[in-house]
Amino acid sequence: MTEQELKILFKKKQKGLLTNAEESMLSSFEKKMIERNHKIIFLNDKHSAKIRHDIYPKIDQPNLKTAYKKWIKIAAVIIITLTIGGLSLNFSTGTHKIKQIKVKIAKLTKEAPFGKKLTFTLPDGSKVKLNSGSKIEYPEQFNDSLREVLLSGEAFFDVKKDLTHPFIVKTAYVSTHVLGTSFNIKAYDDENDIAVTLATGKVRINWNEKDTLVLAPSDQARFNKSTKSITKQKIDVDQFLGWKDGILRFDDEKLETALPKLEKWFNVKIKLLNKKSAKCAFTGIFKDASLQRILENITFVKPTLNFQFTSANEVEISGYCTN
Predict the structure, then answer these.
(1) Which phi and psi angles does 36 have, rounded to 5°?
(2) Which of 145, 153, 160, 251 is most buried, most CB within 10 Å of its CB?
């Protein structure tokens, strides 16, 4: 039932012009919506008192109790159907009027600082794991049409399936649409690429407000912020999703990309004294390992490199390595 149809039915009811079929339709609609949303008719005692204050002066005193009950019912329907998404409406029938009742849904933020990770559950039951240096914003309660969150950084999502309420993850440049699946998004502000990696199900990626790309399991899409272009390839999912299980994996990876990962993971600053060593590559898999242990392994396989802690959260790597 649309907003306009609802208003017409209320006006006809006020004038006593409803047909039996329309009366049944309106009664069923009111009952269904009130039962479904009874918890949000009044946000708190203060909200309830405000509704009474707005309504009581408009109603003749002899019929106060009956009329109030009637308008509480109507107010519930109006609040639920027209304002839960942040809309408001001046609704008037005859001498009775309810003025712009607006329900604001609170925004929540979860953040994993560098060196930490965070696992939590969204209001719909979907599971999220935030990687170090990441932040996610979402409403305290999803609306009736979709589930939308805003991500900065990296997160793995295990989305609860709901065919009628699409799940959307927005980053600065791309949006990822799903119904029920598990996937990873890496979208750090200081990195030029945004990577979407699909573990199970199917997702659709949107960018430039018109272009789309659909991913299947083991697909990874990489969006380049500079060129505004996107590529898709098949990948080894474990190589990109191991972080959520405490695994750091480097597959013939150069120091120029490996060291920033370690900085985020351990919340440290790593200074490479010889910039030419940035092209030096190594391979290793580490589970729940300390920074000390990882650096020892790197310098073991690359003996021309050395490292030292200059403070609790600062490291210098010296020496020279090119391969």
Answers:
(1) -70, -30
(2) 153
| DSSP for 193-235, written as a single string | EEEEEEEES-EEEEETTTEEEEE-TTEEEEEETTTTEEEEEE-
- pTM over 0.70? The answer is no
Q: DSSP letters along 130-184, please?
A: EPTTEEEEEESS--SS-EEEEEEEEEEEEPPP-TTS-EEEE-SSEEEEESS-EEE
Please determine, looking at this structure, whether the domain spanning 246-319 carries the CATH number 2.30.30.30: no
The closest of 199, 126, 228 to 168, measured between CA atoms, is: 126
Residues of the chain with CATH 2.60.120.1440: 107-240
Closest among 146, 150, 117, 122 to 136, alpha carbons compared: 150
Instruction: Please check whether the domain covering 107-240 is classified as CATH 1.20.1440.230.
Output: no
In percent, the amount of the chain with pLDDT more than 90 equals 60
Instruction: Retrieve residue 95's tokens.
Output: 């001498």
> Rounded CA gap, 159 and 140, in Å?
17
Inter-residue contact 160 to 125 (CB < 8 Å): yes
